[in-house]
């Protein structure tokens, strides 16, 4: 996935599309991440000022949602479900294995709604059920 470089002008153009929305903070954060790959710290103040919110309100939304990133993404996004159903079928062991193999590209997430096919892993937006290191490697090709 290719992202645009962050700039204040580009961010303001995106925010203008949400001018008439109710509760635009989460939508604005999601839009920034879709466009730039992450939410730059400068966006917090920009969104707060644009929508007349406090920086604390915007920061609270940003840090509440695990899907929102504050750092540029790695080349591949790998998320493993850490919820109880996936843990019961080996998610913790799989997480250790994939972290050893793929380093910092792995993050924990909570429930992809694929409990019957755990452990569940999301690789670059693609859901993998009954995940194994081999399935993840194949998805990365």
From TrEMBL:
Keywords: Iron, Iron-sulfur, Metal-binding. The keyword Methyltransferase does not apply. The keyword Signal does not apply. Pfam families: 2Fe-2S_thioredx. GO terms for molecular function: iron-sulfur cluster binding; metal ion binding. This is Unannotated protein. The lineage of its organism: unclassified sequences, metagenomes, ecological metagenomes.
